[in-house]
Automatic annotation (TrEMBL):
Entry's Gene Ontology BP terms: DNA recombination; DNA repair
Protein name: ATP-dependent DNA helicase RecQ
Annotated InterPro entries: DEAD/DEAH_box_helicase_dom (IPR011545), DNA/RNA_helicase_DEAH_CS (IPR002464), DNA_helicase_ATP-dep_RecQ (IPR004589), Helicase_ATP-bd (IPR014001), Helicase_C-like (IPR001650), P-loop_NTPase (IPR027417), RecQ_Zn-bd (IPR032284), WH-like_DNA-bd_sf (IPR036388)
EC number: 5.6.2.4
Gene Ontology terms, MF aspect: 3'-5' DNA helicase activity; ATP binding; DNA binding; four-way junction helicase activity; hydrolase activity; metal ion binding
Domain Helicase C-terminal: 216-368
Gene3D superfamilies noted in UniProt: P-loop containing nucleotide triphosphate hydrolases, Winged helix-like DNA-binding domain superfamily/Winged helix DNA-binding domain
Top-level lineage group: Bacteria
Annotated signal peptide: none
Source lineage: Bacteria, Pseudomonadati, Planctomycetota, Planctomycetia, Pirellulales
Location of the Helicase ATP-binding domain: 24-192
Keywords from the named record: ATP-binding, DNA-binding, Helicase, Hydrolase, Isomerase, Metal-binding, Nucleotide-binding
GO cellular component: bacterial nucleoid; cytoplasm; replisome
Organism of provenance: Rhodopirellula islandica
Catalytic activity: Couples ATP hydrolysis with the unwinding of duplex DNA by translocating in the 3'-5' direction
Length: 484
């Protein structure tokens, strides 16, 4: 098959971008494939072209509800009948989409992992035949990353119910640790790995050393002023380590605020205001992340140390998606490390895992509906706190003992939990805790190093390849401007 000719026919492009041909060849051939490409490098085409060329429906699973509409429109413009199944659809729209799928009138189905867990959807897709399964933002399967989605852990079993179609996993980047977790958690079969590099030549990285809370506030004010934020209010995100910091800074600077403790409606309003451009500065925790595709974001500032280089790269990468020069500033105070150590957590004892399982068994029988029960109903009947319960359930779901059922609900799969299984899970949490401590040390080394920031990121992600353009950072003496 002449892929270049098909690329021209389907999308009107005369050539592939770096890595796209290799990814398309692997996916068209029916091989499991992991695609690691930075923002703006053309990841979507790596599944869209093979999805057109392969027999059957292409199922795209993504947490990014906000981008599903844009992707659907793009595919429809290319002549590909596409439907979206997520929480933004009305009952009438869902029924219409189901009818089209059943009639064989659909080539692409875009949905979320939560929606896909509904048995009727799986049965419908299995009936028409899925030729390719795509997992977007695949790093969400990493249980200890801040973008972790418990529902992603159900994807291997869903894949089996769909007849084990080839699977393509896409993400912006991943360290070897995260890559291994994606490979294992999604149960990929000897996957082809396509990695194109991480360079974003339009982004300038800088680390500003701070020596006190007052100094950091002064540096934050200065960082925003550099790009004229306080006068011209060009768009910026300031990432904060705690909800308290986000609230305080938003009030102090007169910006928007976004974090997980806010009401859902308030978060939605804040996001809409920010995307519409007024006010221009968002003070947020890492809850403000996936799905934020604001092309003209001129600056991302980390007011506190991120927990890992993976988190840092994902968050700073939201700047400059329009290709114009933008700035990524880390305000580093060594005392931030203590805060991060607290968040890193520790081992979860087997006894707590057993207790959490017993709580779910009891809750399903006494409070549940259809074998499911909400976490909010379980917390009052358990000696464990809500956060510990949730962490234990996520652990148990990784072994198929329980399963997330969407909307904060959990489903019991295995009634009897053997103590030796709980012991193994306890050991897994110990190892994960150590991994988080290692990740934190790597973040500190990055902040304190005198080497090129981009070179440090390449080393961390195991990338030797660079772009032809110079990358900008404070250590290399390169100067970036706000726009180009």
């Amino acid at each position: 098959m002449n892929l270049l000719a098909q690329l021209d026919r389907c999308f009107g492009f005369q050539s592939f971008r770096h890595g796209q041909r290799e990814a398309c060849e692997s996916i068209v051939a029916g091989k499991d494939t992991i695609v690691l490409m930075p923002t703006g490098a053309g990841k979507s085409l790596c599944y869209q072209l093979p999805g057109i060329l392969r027999e059957g429906v292409t199922l795209v699973v993504s947490p990014l509800i906000s981008l599903a509409k844009d992707q659907a429109e793009h595919l429809k413009e290319a002549g590909q009948p596409t439907v979206v199944l997520n929480s933004t659809r009305t009952a009438k729209q869902i029924q219409s989409a189901r009818s089209k799928i059943s009639a064989g009138e659909v080539k692409f189905v875009l949905t979320t992992p939560e929606r896909l867990q509904k048995t009727d959807i799986c049965e419908l897709l299995a009936g028409v035949g899925v030729g390719l399964m795509v997992v977007d933002e695949a790093h969400c399967v990493s249980q200890w990353g801040h973008d972790f989605r418990p529902d992603y852990l159900c994807l291997p079993s869903i894949r089996e119910r769909l007849g084990n179609p080839p699977l393509a996993a896409l993400t912006a980047t991943a360290s070897e640790r995260t890559l291994d977790e994606v490979r294992c958690s999604l149960r990929l079969n000897d996957p082809t790995i396509v990695r194109t590099g991480i360079d974003r030549p339009n982004l300038r990285i800088e680390v500003v050393r701070c020596y006190s809370a007052e100094d950091k506030l002064k540096q934050l004010h200065r960082a925003l002023e550099i790009e004229g934020m306080l006068e011209r209010t060009e768009p910026a995100i300031v990432y904060c380590g705690t909800t308290k910091t986000a609230d305080q800074l938003a009030k102090s600077f007169g910006g928007l605020c976004y974090h997980g403790k806010m009401r859902k409606a308030d978060r939605a309003d804040a996001q809409e205001e920010f995307m519409n451009g007024c006010p221009r500065v968002m003070f947020a925790t890492n809850a403000f992340g996936l799905g934020i595709d604001k092309q003209d974001l001129r600056q991302v500032i980390h007011a506190e140390l991120p927990g890992s280089l993976e988190s840092y790269y994902q968050e700073m990468g939201r700047a400059g998606r329009d290709g114009k020069r933008s700035r990524c500033t880390l305000l580093y105070d060594p005392s931030d490390v203590d805060l991060r150590k607290m968040f890193a957590g520790g081992m979860i004892e087997a006894s707590k895992i057993m207790t959490a399982h017993h709580t779910l068994v009891r809750g399903v029988h006494e409070l549940g509906e259809n074998g499911e029960v909400a976490l909010s109903k379980l917390a009052p009947i358990s000696p464990l706190g809500r956060v510990t319960l949730k962490n234990c359930f996520q652990l148990l779901s990784s072994r198929g003992i329980v399963a997330p059922a969407g909307r904060g609900r959990w489903r019991l799969i295995v009634e009897e939990l053997e103590h030796r299984v709980a012991d193994r899970l306890e050991e897994a949490t110990r190892v994960r805790s150590e991994d988080r401590q290692v990740a934190l040390r790597e973040m500190v080394e990055f902040a304190e190093s005198s080497k090129c920031r981009w070179e440090l990121l390449r080393e961390h992600f195991g990338v030797s390849e660079t772009t032809n353009a110079d990358c900008l950072c404070d250590q290399c003496g390169a100067v970036a401007v706000a726009s180009a």
